[in-house]
Predict the structure.
Amino acid sequence: AFDFDLASKTLYHGDAALPLTKSEYAICEHLATHAGQVFSKEQIYEAVFGFDAPGDQAAVTEHIKNIRAKLRALDCHPIDTVWGVGYRWKRDLP
């Protein structure tokens, strides 16, 4: 199970704090607070970085890849890809 410490912006799996960057944490928090809902890369980018942020949606793809790599080490796979649509945080995690 995951625990989000909203004050310190830290994601925990059990007692272990995950080594996420600020942007990776923000993406996880956004997806998890809307678990089960699918977001496009554009929607995630705007929610996390803002409408006027420099950069593009490719950054979201890279962040998701990095998040998955960090969580794979814990054998956790909370982010689903919905092909042609975007990403979602699984509603029911083991």
